[in-house]
Amino acid sequence: MLDLSVTKFVKSKLVEPIKHFFVQIGELSFFAGRFFKEVFTPPFEFKELLRQCYQMGNRSLVLVGVTGFIIGLVMTLQSRPTLIQFGAVSWMPNMTGISIVREIGPVITALICAGRIASGIGAELGSMRVTEQIDAMEVSGTNPFKYLVVTRILATTLMLPLLVVFGDLIALYGSALVENLKGDVSFQLYFNTVFDALSFGDVVPATIKSFFFGFVIGLVGCYKGYYSKKGTAGVGLAANTAVVMASLLVFVVDFIAVFVSDIFYEL
Amino acid sequence: MGKTTLENLKLGIFVVIGTILLLLAAYLIGNRQNMFGTTFEITATFKDASGLQNGNNVRFSGINVGTVKKIEMLNDTTISVYMIIEEKMQKHIKKDAIATIGSDGLVGSMLINIVPGAGNTKLIEPGDELQSFSKVATQDMMNTLNTTNENAALLTADLLKVSHALTQGEGTLGKLLHDSSMANDLQQTITNLKYTSNHANSTMAELNKMVRSINFEESTAGVLLSDTASAVKMRDVISNLDASSREIKSMTQNLNIIIEGIKKEDGAINYLSKDTALVGHLKRTMLNIEQGTESFNMNMEALKHNFLTRGYFKKQEKKQKKEAKELPD
Protein backbone atom coordinates (compact mmCIF):
# COMPACT_ATOMS: atom_id res chain seq x y z
CA MET A 1 0.00 0.00 0.00
CA LEU A 2 2.80 2.34 1.02
CA ASP A 3 4.94 1.17 -1.88
CA LEU A 4 2.15 1.91 -4.29
CA SER A 5 1.66 5.44 -3.01
CA VAL A 6 5.43 6.14 -3.14
CA THR A 7 5.61 4.86 -6.69
CA LYS A 8 2.62 6.98 -7.60
CA PHE A 9 4.18 10.03 -5.94
CA VAL A 10 7.49 9.51 -7.71
CA LYS A 11 5.69 8.94 -10.97
CA SER A 12 3.54 12.05 -10.65
CA LYS A 13 6.23 14.37 -9.31
CA LEU A 14 9.33 13.19 -11.17
CA VAL A 15 8.65 10.94 -14.10
CA GLU A 16 5.66 12.77 -15.49
CA PRO A 17 7.25 16.23 -15.61
CA ILE A 18 10.37 14.83 -17.25
CA LYS A 19 8.25 12.95 -19.74
CA HIS A 20 6.17 16.06 -20.31
CA PHE A 21 9.33 18.12 -20.83
CA PHE A 22 10.65 15.79 -23.51
CA VAL A 23 7.23 15.57 -25.13
CA GLN A 24 7.11 19.34 -25.29
CA ILE A 25 10.57 19.52 -26.85
CA GLY A 26 9.64 16.86 -29.35
CA GLU A 27 6.39 18.60 -30.27
CA LEU A 28 8.15 21.94 -30.51
CA SER A 29 10.76 20.41 -32.82
CA PHE A 30 8.07 18.94 -35.05
CA PHE A 31 6.30 22.29 -35.00
CA ALA A 32 9.51 24.03 -36.05
CA GLY A 33 10.09 21.42 -38.75
CA ARG A 34 6.60 21.98 -40.08
CA PHE A 35 7.22 25.74 -40.09
CA PHE A 36 10.35 25.32 -42.22
CA LYS A 37 8.45 23.05 -44.57
CA GLU A 38 5.52 25.44 -44.92
CA VAL A 39 7.54 28.68 -45.14
CA PHE A 40 9.13 27.82 -48.48
CA THR A 41 6.03 26.41 -50.19
CA PRO A 42 3.38 28.64 -51.79
CA PRO A 43 0.90 30.15 -51.38
CA PHE A 44 2.53 32.94 -49.37
CA GLU A 45 0.35 35.06 -47.14
CA PHE A 46 2.08 38.42 -47.69
CA LYS A 47 -0.71 40.65 -46.51
CA GLU A 48 -1.08 38.75 -43.27
CA LEU A 49 2.72 38.80 -42.84
CA LEU A 50 2.79 42.58 -43.23
CA ARG A 51 -0.08 42.95 -40.78
CA GLN A 52 1.71 40.80 -38.25
CA CYS A 53 4.97 42.66 -38.79
CA TYR A 54 3.18 45.92 -38.10
CA GLN A 55 1.53 44.48 -35.00
CA MET A 56 4.74 43.08 -33.61
CA GLY A 57 7.28 45.60 -34.85
CA ASN A 58 5.70 49.03 -34.73
CA ARG A 59 3.44 48.30 -31.81
CA SER A 60 6.36 47.13 -29.64
CA LEU A 61 8.62 50.01 -30.54
CA VAL A 62 7.49 52.37 -27.77
CA LEU A 63 7.74 49.68 -25.13
CA VAL A 64 11.19 48.60 -26.30
CA GLY A 65 12.29 52.21 -26.58
CA VAL A 66 11.23 53.16 -23.06
CA THR A 67 12.76 50.00 -21.60
CA GLY A 68 15.99 50.50 -23.49
CA PHE A 69 16.24 54.15 -22.47
CA ILE A 70 15.73 53.31 -18.81
CA ILE A 71 18.18 50.41 -18.95
CA GLY A 72 20.87 52.59 -20.51
CA LEU A 73 20.22 55.35 -18.00
CA VAL A 74 20.20 53.08 -14.98
CA MET A 75 23.19 51.03 -16.03
CA THR A 76 25.31 54.14 -16.44
CA LEU A 77 24.11 55.63 -13.17
CA GLN A 78 24.81 52.41 -11.32
CA SER A 79 28.26 51.77 -12.70
CA ARG A 80 29.46 55.39 -12.46
CA PRO A 81 30.48 55.31 -8.77
CA THR A 82 32.46 52.09 -9.18
CA LEU A 83 34.22 53.33 -12.29
CA ILE A 84 34.98 56.64 -10.58
CA GLN A 85 36.47 54.68 -7.69
CA PHE A 86 38.83 53.00 -10.12
CA GLY A 87 39.49 56.22 -11.99
CA ALA A 88 38.13 54.58 -15.12
CA VAL A 89 35.06 56.70 -15.72
CA SER A 90 36.34 57.57 -19.18
CA TRP A 91 35.81 53.91 -20.06
CA MET A 92 32.08 54.24 -19.47
CA PRO A 93 31.15 54.50 -23.18
CA ASN A 94 33.24 51.44 -23.98
CA MET A 95 31.68 49.46 -21.17
CA THR A 96 28.05 50.46 -21.73
CA GLY A 97 28.44 50.30 -25.52
CA ILE A 98 29.77 46.78 -25.55
CA SER A 99 27.43 45.44 -22.88
CA ILE A 100 24.35 46.99 -24.45
CA VAL A 101 25.13 45.95 -28.01
CA ARG A 102 26.40 42.49 -27.12
CA GLU A 103 24.03 41.36 -24.45
CA ILE A 104 21.67 43.69 -22.68
CA GLY A 105 20.01 45.17 -25.75
CA PRO A 106 19.11 41.88 -27.47
CA VAL A 107 18.12 40.04 -24.27
CA ILE A 108 16.01 42.83 -22.79
CA THR A 109 14.25 43.40 -26.10
CA ALA A 110 13.66 39.68 -26.48
CA LEU A 111 12.25 39.41 -22.97
CA ILE A 112 9.95 42.38 -23.52
CA CYS A 113 8.78 40.82 -26.77
CA ALA A 114 8.38 37.45 -25.10
CA GLY A 115 6.10 39.12 -22.59
CA ARG A 116 4.16 41.12 -25.12
CA ILE A 117 4.21 39.10 -28.33
CA ALA A 118 4.40 35.47 -27.18
CA SER A 119 1.54 35.93 -24.74
CA GLY A 120 -0.46 37.75 -27.40
CA ILE A 121 0.07 35.03 -29.96
CA GLY A 122 -0.60 32.30 -27.37
CA ALA A 123 -3.86 33.92 -26.28
CA GLU A 124 -4.97 34.73 -29.82
CA LEU A 125 -4.30 31.31 -31.31
CA GLY A 126 -5.51 29.62 -28.12
CA SER A 127 -8.87 31.36 -28.27
CA MET A 128 -9.09 30.55 -31.99
CA ARG A 129 -8.45 26.93 -31.16
CA VAL A 130 -11.02 27.02 -28.34
CA THR A 131 -13.65 28.64 -30.50
CA GLU A 132 -12.79 26.13 -33.23
CA GLN A 133 -11.90 28.81 -35.75
CA ILE A 134 -8.77 26.87 -36.69
CA ASP A 135 -10.84 23.79 -37.38
CA ALA A 136 -13.22 25.91 -39.44
CA MET A 137 -10.28 27.18 -41.51
CA GLU A 138 -9.12 23.69 -42.20
CA VAL A 139 -12.65 22.78 -43.32
CA SER A 140 -12.87 25.83 -45.58
CA GLY A 141 -9.68 24.83 -47.36
CA THR A 142 -7.36 27.53 -45.96
CA ASN A 143 -4.16 26.20 -44.44
CA PRO A 144 -4.39 27.55 -40.88
CA PHE A 145 -0.75 26.75 -40.18
CA LYS A 146 0.38 28.80 -43.14
CA TYR A 147 -1.99 31.65 -42.46
CA LEU A 148 -1.68 31.85 -38.69
CA VAL A 149 1.62 30.28 -37.66
CA VAL A 150 4.07 30.89 -40.51
CA THR A 151 3.22 34.57 -40.80
CA ARG A 152 3.56 35.14 -37.06
CA ILE A 153 6.84 33.30 -36.67
CA LEU A 154 8.28 35.05 -39.73
CA ALA A 155 7.07 38.38 -38.43
CA THR A 156 8.74 37.97 -35.02
CA THR A 157 11.93 36.61 -36.64
CA LEU A 158 12.19 39.61 -38.93
CA MET A 159 11.03 42.29 -36.53
CA LEU A 160 13.04 41.45 -33.44
CA PRO A 161 16.48 42.36 -34.88
CA LEU A 162 15.09 45.72 -35.93
CA LEU A 163 13.61 46.27 -32.49
CA VAL A 164 17.00 45.36 -31.03
CA VAL A 165 18.69 48.01 -33.20
CA PHE A 166 16.25 50.65 -32.01
CA GLY A 167 16.50 49.43 -28.43
CA ASP A 168 20.33 49.54 -28.51
CA LEU A 169 20.36 53.02 -29.95
CA ILE A 170 17.91 54.39 -27.42
CA ALA A 171 19.72 52.66 -24.55
CA LEU A 172 23.02 54.18 -25.72
CA TYR A 173 21.30 57.53 -25.94
CA GLY A 174 20.10 57.14 -22.35
CA SER A 175 23.61 56.26 -21.25
CA ALA A 176 25.08 59.17 -23.20
CA LEU A 177 22.56 61.48 -21.57
CA VAL A 178 23.75 60.52 -18.09
CA GLU A 179 27.39 60.90 -19.12
CA ASN A 180 26.59 64.23 -20.72
CA LEU A 181 24.76 65.57 -17.69
CA LYS A 182 26.92 64.12 -14.93
CA GLY A 183 30.31 63.77 -16.54
CA ASP A 184 30.66 66.51 -19.17
CA VAL A 185 31.06 64.04 -22.01
CA SER A 186 29.69 65.35 -25.28
CA PHE A 187 27.39 63.14 -27.34
CA GLN A 188 29.91 63.16 -30.15
CA LEU A 189 32.72 61.96 -27.90
CA TYR A 190 30.44 59.37 -26.32
CA PHE A 191 29.35 57.84 -29.61
CA ASN A 192 32.86 58.11 -31.07
CA THR A 193 34.20 56.13 -28.14
CA VAL A 194 31.36 53.62 -28.39
CA PHE A 195 32.00 52.95 -32.08
CA ASP A 196 35.72 52.86 -31.36
CA ALA A 197 35.15 50.14 -28.80
CA LEU A 198 32.72 48.13 -30.92
CA SER A 199 33.82 45.72 -33.57
CA PHE A 200 31.99 43.47 -35.99
CA GLY A 201 32.59 40.71 -33.49
CA ASP A 202 30.17 42.51 -31.20
CA VAL A 203 27.49 43.54 -33.68
CA VAL A 204 27.23 40.55 -36.01
CA PRO A 205 26.67 37.81 -33.40
CA ALA A 206 24.21 40.05 -31.55
CA THR A 207 22.21 40.61 -34.72
CA ILE A 208 22.19 36.94 -35.67
CA LYS A 209 21.21 36.10 -32.11
CA SER A 210 18.24 38.49 -32.35
CA PHE A 211 16.87 36.56 -35.34
CA PHE A 212 16.91 33.40 -33.25
CA PHE A 213 15.29 35.19 -30.32
CA GLY A 214 12.49 36.35 -32.61
CA PHE A 215 12.11 32.90 -34.06
CA VAL A 216 11.92 31.27 -30.62
CA ILE A 217 9.37 33.80 -29.34
CA GLY A 218 7.12 33.33 -32.37
CA LEU A 219 7.57 29.59 -32.35
CA VAL A 220 6.71 29.14 -28.67
CA GLY A 221 3.78 31.54 -28.81
CA CYS A 222 2.29 29.81 -31.85
CA TYR A 223 2.98 26.34 -30.53
CA LYS A 224 1.32 27.04 -27.20
CA GLY A 225 -1.66 28.71 -28.79
CA TYR A 226 -2.02 26.22 -31.64
CA TYR A 227 -2.10 23.25 -29.28
CA SER A 228 -4.09 25.02 -26.58
CA LYS A 229 -6.32 22.88 -24.41
CA LYS A 230 -10.03 23.28 -24.61
CA GLY A 231 -11.83 25.77 -22.41
CA THR A 232 -11.12 29.31 -21.32
CA ALA A 233 -8.56 28.04 -18.82
CA GLY A 234 -6.68 26.58 -21.77
CA VAL A 235 -6.32 30.03 -23.32
CA GLY A 236 -4.93 31.54 -20.11
CA LEU A 237 -2.57 28.61 -19.69
CA ALA A 238 -1.45 28.88 -23.31
CA ALA A 239 -0.64 32.61 -22.87
CA ASN A 240 1.06 32.01 -19.55
CA THR A 241 3.23 29.05 -20.57
CA ALA A 242 4.07 30.80 -23.84
CA VAL A 243 5.65 33.70 -21.92
CA VAL A 244 7.47 31.44 -19.47
CA MET A 245 8.78 29.06 -22.11
CA ALA A 246 9.70 31.83 -24.54
CA SER A 247 11.62 33.72 -21.83
CA LEU A 248 13.42 30.56 -20.80
CA LEU A 249 14.28 29.65 -24.37
CA VAL A 250 15.54 33.16 -25.00
CA PHE A 251 18.18 32.57 -22.33
CA VAL A 252 18.97 29.11 -23.64
CA VAL A 253 19.41 30.47 -27.15
CA ASP A 254 21.47 33.34 -25.72
CA PHE A 255 23.77 30.87 -24.00
CA ILE A 256 24.20 28.82 -27.17
CA ALA A 257 24.73 31.94 -29.28
CA VAL A 258 27.38 33.34 -26.94
CA PHE A 259 29.05 29.95 -26.79
CA VAL A 260 29.18 29.67 -30.57
CA SER A 261 30.18 33.27 -31.23
CA ASP A 262 32.91 32.92 -28.63
CA ILE A 263 34.40 30.12 -30.69
CA PHE A 264 34.15 32.09 -33.94
CA TYR A 265 35.26 35.43 -32.60
CA GLU A 266 37.79 34.21 -30.12
CA LEU A 267 40.56 36.75 -29.92
CA MET B 1 -8.12 49.22 -46.81
CA GLY B 2 -6.93 52.68 -45.92
CA LYS B 3 -6.03 51.43 -42.48
CA THR B 4 -3.96 48.61 -43.94
CA THR B 5 -2.06 51.03 -46.21
CA LEU B 6 -1.28 53.29 -43.25
CA GLU B 7 -0.09 50.30 -41.26
CA ASN B 8 2.09 49.19 -44.14
CA LEU B 9 3.49 52.70 -44.49
CA LYS B 10 4.38 52.80 -40.82
CA LEU B 11 5.88 49.34 -41.05
CA GLY B 12 7.88 50.40 -44.09
CA ILE B 13 9.25 53.43 -42.26
CA PHE B 14 10.09 51.28 -39.24
CA VAL B 15 11.91 48.67 -41.32
CA VAL B 16 13.79 51.21 -43.43
CA ILE B 17 14.96 53.25 -40.44
CA GLY B 18 15.96 50.12 -38.54
CA THR B 19 17.95 48.78 -41.47
CA ILE B 20 19.62 52.14 -42.08
CA LEU B 21 20.64 52.35 -38.43
CA LEU B 22 22.09 48.85 -38.53
CA LEU B 23 24.01 49.58 -41.72
CA LEU B 24 25.18 52.92 -40.34
CA ALA B 25 26.49 51.24 -37.21
CA ALA B 26 28.22 48.61 -39.34
CA TYR B 27 29.74 51.33 -41.52
CA LEU B 28 30.94 53.35 -38.52
CA ILE B 29 32.52 50.30 -36.94
CA GLY B 30 34.09 49.23 -40.23
CA ASN B 31 35.34 52.73 -40.85
CA ARG B 32 37.12 52.72 -37.53
CA GLN B 33 38.90 49.56 -38.54
CA ASN B 34 39.84 50.99 -41.93
CA MET B 35 37.73 48.50 -43.84
CA PHE B 36 36.58 51.19 -46.22
CA GLY B 37 38.58 53.89 -47.88
CA THR B 38 41.96 53.65 -49.55
CA THR B 39 44.74 52.24 -47.45
CA PHE B 40 48.22 50.84 -47.87
CA GLU B 41 50.18 48.29 -45.94
CA ILE B 42 53.49 48.59 -44.12
CA THR B 43 55.32 46.26 -41.76
CA ALA B 44 57.52 46.47 -38.72
CA THR B 45 59.51 43.76 -36.99
CA PHE B 46 59.57 43.39 -33.24
CA LYS B 47 61.19 41.04 -30.80
CA ASP B 48 58.17 41.03 -28.52
CA ALA B 49 54.59 41.76 -29.53
CA SER B 50 53.67 42.65 -25.90
CA GLY B 51 50.10 41.41 -26.32
CA LEU B 52 49.36 43.28 -29.54
CA GLN B 53 46.27 41.99 -31.33
CA ASN B 54 44.79 42.20 -34.79
CA GLY B 55 42.68 45.32 -35.06
CA ASN B 56 44.68 47.34 -32.53
CA ASN B 57 45.16 50.97 -33.45
CA VAL B 58 48.22 52.39 -35.16
CA ARG B 59 49.06 55.95 -34.21
CA PHE B 60 51.32 58.40 -35.93
CA SER B 61 52.28 61.31 -33.71
CA GLY B 62 49.27 60.51 -31.55
CA ILE B 63 46.70 60.41 -34.37
CA ASN B 64 44.92 57.18 -35.26
CA VAL B 65 46.06 56.43 -38.79
CA GLY B 66 45.37 52.73 -39.13
CA THR B 67 45.07 49.32 -37.59
CA VAL B 68 47.10 46.17 -37.12
CA LYS B 69 46.15 43.73 -39.85
CA LYS B 70 48.22 40.69 -39.11
CA ILE B 71 50.85 39.55 -36.65
CA GLU B 72 53.18 36.88 -37.95
CA MET B 73 55.87 34.98 -36.12
CA LEU B 74 58.90 34.61 -38.38
CA ASN B 75 61.17 32.91 -35.86
CA ASP B 76 61.58 32.81 -32.11
CA THR B 77 62.91 36.38 -31.90
CA THR B 78 61.28 38.01 -34.91
CA ILE B 79 57.63 39.00 -35.13
CA SER B 80 56.36 40.78 -38.20
CA VAL B 81 53.45 43.13 -37.68
CA TYR B 82 51.47 44.15 -40.77
CA MET B 83 49.67 47.46 -40.50
CA ILE B 84 47.02 49.08 -42.66
CA ILE B 85 47.57 52.84 -42.89
CA GLU B 86 45.21 55.42 -44.38
CA GLU B 87 46.51 56.52 -47.73
CA LYS B 88 46.09 60.21 -46.93
CA MET B 89 48.71 59.78 -44.20
CA GLN B 90 51.32 58.51 -46.67
CA LYS B 91 52.53 62.03 -47.40
CA HIS B 92 53.39 62.56 -43.74
CA ILE B 93 55.19 59.36 -42.79
CA LYS B 94 58.84 59.18 -43.78
CA LYS B 95 61.08 56.18 -44.19
CA ASP B 96 63.04 56.86 -41.01
CA ALA B 97 59.95 56.76 -38.78
CA ILE B 98 60.22 54.40 -35.83
CA ALA B 99 57.47 52.00 -34.74
CA THR B 100 57.08 51.15 -31.07
CA ILE B 101 54.52 49.08 -29.20
CA GLY B 102 52.79 51.02 -26.45
CA SER B 103 49.60 50.93 -24.51
CA ASP B 104 46.60 53.21 -24.62
CA GLY B 105 46.56 54.52 -21.09
CA LEU B 106 47.34 52.55 -17.97
CA VAL B 107 44.74 49.85 -18.50
CA GLY B 108 44.14 50.35 -22.22
CA SER B 109 44.73 47.96 -25.05
CA MET B 110 48.07 47.80 -26.83
CA LEU B 111 48.78 49.92 -29.89
CA ILE B 112 51.58 50.76 -32.28
CA ASN B 113 53.04 54.25 -32.07
CA ILE B 114 54.86 55.48 -35.13
CA VAL B 115 57.23 58.26 -34.16
CA PRO B 116 58.59 60.58 -36.87
CA GLY B 117 62.33 60.23 -37.44
CA ALA B 118 64.78 63.08 -37.07
CA GLY B 119 66.13 63.09 -40.60
CA ASN B 120 64.71 64.40 -43.83
CA THR B 121 64.37 61.18 -45.78
CA LYS B 122 61.96 60.11 -48.49
CA LEU B 123 58.27 59.40 -47.90
CA ILE B 124 57.18 55.91 -47.02
CA GLU B 125 55.91 53.57 -49.74
CA PRO B 126 53.46 50.68 -49.55
CA GLY B 127 55.16 47.51 -48.32
CA ASP B 128 58.00 49.32 -46.59
CA GLU B 129 59.36 48.03 -43.33
CA LEU B 130 59.69 50.56 -40.54
CA GLN B 131 62.47 50.53 -38.00
CA SER B 132 61.25 49.30 -34.68
CA PHE B 133 62.20 50.00 -31.15
CA SER B 134 61.26 47.55 -28.42
CA LYS B 135 60.50 49.29 -25.20
CA VAL B 136 61.51 47.86 -21.87
CA ALA B 137 59.26 44.90 -21.29
CA THR B 138 57.48 44.33 -18.01
CA GLN B 139 59.68 41.35 -17.27
CA ASP B 140 62.85 43.44 -17.60
CA MET B 141 61.27 46.04 -15.39
CA MET B 142 60.52 43.38 -12.82
CA ASN B 143 64.10 42.14 -13.00
CA THR B 144 65.43 45.63 -12.39
CA LEU B 145 62.97 46.08 -9.59
CA ASN B 146 64.16 42.82 -8.11
CA THR B 147 67.77 44.04 -8.04
CA THR B 148 66.61 47.34 -6.57
CA ASN B 149 64.68 45.45 -3.93
CA GLU B 150 67.70 43.39 -2.98
CA ASN B 151 69.80 46.53 -2.69
CA ALA B 152 67.06 48.13 -0.65
CA ALA B 153 67.06 45.12 1.67
CA LEU B 154 70.83 45.42 2.19
CA LEU B 155 70.48 49.13 2.74
CA THR B 156 67.75 48.72 5.31
CA ALA B 157 69.80 46.07 7.12
CA ASP B 158 72.70 48.54 7.33
CA LEU B 159 70.36 51.29 8.39
CA LEU B 160 69.04 49.02 11.10
CA LYS B 161 72.57 48.50 12.40
CA VAL B 162 73.22 52.23 12.29
CA SER B 163 70.00 53.08 14.07
CA HIS B 164 70.67 50.37 16.65
CA ALA B 165 74.12 51.80 17.31
CA LEU B 166 72.57 55.25 17.53
CA THR B 167 70.00 54.22 20.10
CA GLN B 168 72.72 52.48 22.10
CA GLY B 169 74.76 55.68 22.15
CA GLU B 170 77.71 54.22 20.27
CA GLY B 171 79.91 56.36 18.05
CA THR B 172 80.01 60.11 17.67
CA LEU B 173 76.42 60.41 16.43
CA GLY B 174 75.14 58.19 19.21
CA LYS B 175 76.90 60.38 21.77
CA LEU B 176 75.48 63.41 20.09
CA LEU B 177 72.02 61.98 20.52
CA HIS B 178 72.49 60.94 24.12
CA ASP B 179 74.77 63.63 25.63
CA SER B 180 72.49 66.21 27.26
CA SER B 181 75.31 68.61 28.20
CA MET B 182 76.23 68.84 24.55
CA ALA B 183 72.73 70.00 23.80
CA ASN B 184 73.16 72.77 26.34
CA ASP B 185 76.50 73.68 24.80
CA LEU B 186 74.95 73.67 21.41
CA GLN B 187 72.20 75.89 22.65
CA GLN B 188 74.77 78.24 24.14
CA THR B 189 76.70 78.20 20.88
CA ILE B 190 73.60 79.00 18.97
CA THR B 191 72.79 81.83 21.32
CA ASN B 192 76.30 83.17 20.81
CA LEU B 193 75.97 82.76 17.10
CA LYS B 194 72.72 84.66 17.26
CA TYR B 195 74.37 87.43 19.24
CA THR B 196 77.26 87.51 16.75
CA SER B 197 74.97 87.58 13.81
CA ASN B 198 73.05 90.44 15.40
CA HIS B 199 76.30 92.30 15.76
CA ALA B 200 77.25 91.44 12.26
CA ASN B 201 73.90 92.78 11.19
CA SER B 202 74.40 96.08 12.89
CA THR B 203 77.97 96.27 11.57
CA MET B 204 76.71 95.64 8.12
CA ALA B 205 74.09 98.31 8.58
CA GLU B 206 76.80 100.76 9.61
CA LEU B 207 78.96 99.72 6.72
CA ASN B 208 76.00 100.23 4.45
CA LYS B 209 75.49 103.64 5.90
CA MET B 210 79.17 104.44 5.31
CA VAL B 211 79.07 103.18 1.80
CA ARG B 212 75.94 105.18 1.18
CA SER B 213 77.55 108.29 2.63
CA ILE B 214 80.49 108.04 0.23
CA ASN B 215 80.19 110.64 -2.45
CA PHE B 216 80.66 108.48 -5.46
CA GLU B 217 80.73 111.28 -7.92
CA GLU B 218 83.48 113.44 -6.56
CA SER B 219 85.51 111.51 -4.02
CA THR B 220 88.63 109.57 -4.89
CA ALA B 221 86.90 106.27 -4.27
CA GLY B 222 84.04 107.30 -6.50
CA VAL B 223 86.37 108.36 -9.23
CA LEU B 224 88.28 105.13 -8.84
CA LEU B 225 85.10 103.13 -8.95
CA SER B 226 83.27 104.84 -11.74
CA ASP B 227 85.70 106.80 -13.93
CA THR B 228 86.82 104.76 -16.88
CA ALA B 229 89.48 107.28 -17.79
CA SER B 230 91.07 106.95 -14.38
CA ALA B 231 90.97 103.21 -14.83
CA VAL B 232 93.12 103.66 -17.90
CA LYS B 233 95.40 105.99 -15.96
CA MET B 234 95.53 103.57 -13.08
CA ARG B 235 96.53 100.88 -15.52
CA ASP B 236 99.29 103.16 -16.80
CA VAL B 237 100.35 103.92 -13.25
CA ILE B 238 100.41 100.28 -12.43
CA SER B 239 102.38 99.47 -15.53
CA ASN B 240 104.78 102.31 -14.69
CA LEU B 241 105.04 100.99 -11.19
CA ASP B 242 105.79 97.64 -12.66
CA ALA B 243 108.51 99.09 -14.84
CA SER B 244 109.88 101.09 -11.90
CA SER B 245 109.97 98.07 -9.70
CA ARG B 246 111.86 96.22 -12.38
CA GLU B 247 114.36 99.06 -12.56
CA ILE B 248 114.60 99.17 -8.78
CA LYS B 249 115.25 95.50 -8.83
CA SER B 250 118.05 95.83 -11.37
CA MET B 251 119.40 98.77 -9.40
CA THR B 252 119.46 96.84 -6.15
CA GLN B 253 121.17 94.04 -7.99
CA ASN B 254 123.80 96.46 -9.23
CA LEU B 255 124.14 97.88 -5.76
CA ASN B 256 124.56 94.41 -4.43
CA ILE B 257 127.29 93.75 -6.90
CA ILE B 258 128.98 97.00 -5.93
CA ILE B 259 128.70 96.18 -2.25
CA GLU B 260 130.04 92.75 -2.87
CA GLY B 261 132.92 94.36 -4.73
CA ILE B 262 133.50 96.75 -1.90
CA LYS B 263 133.62 93.92 0.56
CA LYS B 264 135.96 91.77 -1.42
CA GLU B 265 138.33 94.11 -3.25
CA ASP B 266 141.08 96.22 -1.71
CA GLY B 267 139.61 99.54 -2.76
CA ALA B 268 139.68 102.80 -0.79
CA ILE B 269 136.22 102.33 0.61
CA ASN B 270 136.95 98.84 1.79
CA TYR B 271 140.10 100.13 3.43
CA LEU B 272 138.14 103.04 4.94
CA SER B 273 135.38 100.85 6.27
CA LYS B 274 137.63 98.18 7.71
CA ASP B 275 140.77 100.00 9.06
CA THR B 276 140.13 101.02 12.67
CA ALA B 277 143.49 102.95 13.04
CA LEU B 278 142.32 105.27 10.27
CA VAL B 279 139.50 106.57 12.48
CA GLY B 280 142.11 107.73 15.03
CA HIS B 281 144.10 109.42 12.27
CA LEU B 282 141.00 111.07 10.91
CA LYS B 283 140.01 112.35 14.34
CA ARG B 284 143.43 113.90 14.84
CA THR B 285 143.35 115.41 11.40
CA MET B 286 139.90 116.92 12.11
CA LEU B 287 141.25 118.42 15.35
CA ASN B 288 144.21 119.90 13.49
CA ILE B 289 141.81 121.35 10.85
CA GLU B 290 139.70 122.91 13.64
CA GLN B 291 142.73 124.47 15.24
CA GLY B 292 143.83 125.65 11.80
CA THR B 293 140.48 127.34 11.02
CA GLU B 294 140.53 129.04 14.46
CA SER B 295 143.91 130.54 13.85
CA PHE B 296 142.71 131.41 10.28
CA ASN B 297 139.77 133.31 11.83
CA MET B 298 142.09 135.21 14.09
CA ASN B 299 144.26 136.04 11.07
CA MET B 300 141.19 137.33 9.24
CA GLU B 301 140.22 139.56 12.20
CA ALA B 302 143.76 140.95 12.21
CA LEU B 303 143.43 141.59 8.46
CA LYS B 304 140.19 143.62 9.01
CA HIS B 305 142.04 145.92 11.41
CA ASN B 306 145.08 146.29 9.17
CA PHE B 307 145.19 149.70 7.47
CA LEU B 308 145.93 148.19 4.14
CA THR B 309 142.78 146.09 3.93
CA ARG B 310 140.44 148.01 6.29
CA GLY B 311 138.93 150.05 3.37
CA TYR B 312 137.78 146.93 1.49
CA PHE B 313 135.98 145.42 4.52
CA LYS B 314 134.14 148.74 5.26
CA LYS B 315 132.97 148.88 1.65
CA GLN B 316 131.61 145.37 2.00
CA GLU B 317 129.77 146.29 5.19
CA LYS B 318 128.05 149.28 3.58
CA LYS B 319 126.99 147.23 0.59
CA GLN B 320 125.40 144.60 2.86
CA LYS B 321 123.48 147.27 4.84
CA LYS B 322 122.19 148.80 1.63
CA GLU B 323 120.88 145.43 0.39
CA ALA B 324 119.19 144.83 3.80
CA LYS B 325 117.39 148.16 3.48
CA GLU B 326 116.17 147.46 -0.06
CA LEU B 327 114.82 143.99 0.65
CA PRO B 328 111.75 144.92 2.85
CA ASP B 329 110.46 147.12 0.02
The computed structural class of chain B is alpha/beta
Write down how many β-strands of chain B occur, each being a DSSP E stretch of 2 or more residues: 7
Q: What kind of assembly state do the chains in view correspond to? A: heterodimer
The proportion of residues forming helix of chain A, as a percent range, comes to over 70%
Q: Number of helix segments of chain A?
A: 8
Mean pLDDT value of chain A: 87
What does this structure look like?
- The complex is a heterodimer of chains A (267) and B (329).
- With 267 residues, chain A is mostly helical.
- Helices cover 88% and strands 0% of the residues of chain A.
- Chain A is built from 8 helices and no strands.
- The radius of gyration of chain A is 22 Å and the shape is globular.
- The mean pLDDT of chain A is 87.
- Chain B is α/β, with parallel strands linked by helices.
- Chain B contains 9 helices and 7 strands; from the N terminus they run αβββββββαααααααα.
- Chain A: Belongs to the MlaE permease family.
- Chain A: The chain crosses the membrane at residues 60-77, 153-178, 198-223, 235-260.
- Chain A: Keywords: Membrane, Transmembrane, Transmembrane helix.
